[in-house]
Amino acid sequence: xxxxxxxxxxxxxxxxxxxxxxxxxxxxxxxxxxxxxxxxxxxxxxxxxxxxxxxxxxxxxxxxxxxxxxxxxxxxxxxxxxxxxxxxxxxxxxxxxxxxxxxxxxxxxxxxxxxxxxxxxxxxxxxxxxxxxxxxxxxxxxxxxxxxxxxxxxxxxxxxxxxxxxxxxxxxxxxxxxxxxxxxxxxxxxxxxxxxxxxxxxxxxxxxxxxxxxxxxxxxxxxxxxxxxxxxxxxxxxxxxxxxxxxxxxxxxxxxxxxxxxxxxxxxxxxxxxxxxxxxxxxxxxxxxxxxxxxxxxxxxxxxxxxxxxxxxxxxxxxxxxxxxxxxxxxxxxxxxxxxxxxxxxxxxxxxxxxxxxxxxxxxxxxxxxxxxxxxxxxxxxxxxxxxxxxxxxxxxxxxxxxxxxxxxxxxxxxxxxxxxxxxxxxxxxxxxxxxxxxxxxxxxxxxxxxxxxxxxxxxxxxxxxxxxxxxxxxxxxxxxxx
Length: 483
Fold this sequence. Notes:
The chain is an alpha/beta fold. The chain has helices spanning 4-15, 31-48, 62-74, 115-120, 159-168, 188-200, 212-220, 230-242, 262-271, 388-396, 430-440, 465-475; strands at residues 20-23, 28-30, 55-59, 78-81, 95-98, 109-112, 139-145, 153-158, 179-181, 204-205, 225-228, 252-255, 276-282, 286-293, 301-305, 310-314, 327-332, 339-342, 345-347, 351-352, 355-356, 360-365, 368-374, 379-381, 384-386, 401-412, 415-424, 448-451. A hairpin with a 2-residue loop joins strand 18 and strand 19 (345-347). Helix 1 packs across helix 2 (31-48) and helix 2 (31-48) packs across helix 3 (62-74). It starts with a helix and ends in an 8-residue tail after the last helix.
């Protein structure tokens, strides 16, 4: 099966050859140039030994990552972007396409790619092969996700799942408007935003960093949507203010990956003055629910299930519960991943029985989903259940705190405490922060504090609490981390 995505570069090259298709900080490609580059890259990769069904990891800057990713679809390979990753995933790969001298993952075949390599393949564009995926359920893209375990796994997206998501993105995600997507191509949001730009024939802005240069690029190209996780958007707001950059054409902010705090929503309202769209979903299942957000709203309310998505709340026995009753969230739709690729084999994991289980608790009231928390993140302090995200949010609003994250630590055997890692200004008074948290979170406040240079997060901006547990266990010479 040849995906419709594969035909898009050639179609746009014929219809709008001189219009911008791909823009990075230092150069741009028209649709004619994009089509030729993708074909030339496909020819050179095939000559180097890349074949259909190969798992091909790419560790490249965003613009090259997108060009190579499109070439891999043309070769019916299984692309896996590592863009933005600093540690190697456990997923085995057949081919690594990377920058000269870089080796993020082991592979028997390594293809080193740079601008000169790409330019050298343009004369080969007419020779580029094109292969078809065997069936609609063939795997065409792998996206790393921490899922409910915290360990990165490769979610396997099939041709039919990607095609279905692309056909329905306008309901909740990207549409024909120009946007700056702050999430990388290694995330489901970043990948599908790039696909949507190609689908609608608008330029994809490929940026590797959230800085003054990337935000000025967004202003120059008239972006109407700014998209990212809460931590991405918080960083962008700070850079915009520090460098006095305006986005005059912006008419929406889209947030995904985690709940937007009330302080973030207030900052967007005050600084940008545009509506905010909140999307609840996952790598495995795509978008599940969506609503427009405003400061003062209940952050747990994430909206009604999207068209084509069946969402249920189930009990411990996996049986649906009545409306208004708490339980575990599960959902399904035609965009569901096939499972996870591990050691060359497809396994179910959190995708089983045709459903995805995101590890969230929640309730359905009047057809609207209200989240309760992460099943895997709730801390159990001798029978007292604590949601660490609530502590994070309150701590981040304290004067002088730039970021914060709670985590479990066991300094004395059998006694689990709440630790708090803080990224703070030099003048920030941690003793005053301690007193404030004790007042507003009686019985659920942190008892261990420590400064960090940054809070460890995955590519979606979610806190990696297990890394904080390990780091502070080392600082306090704790022999074993809590389980």
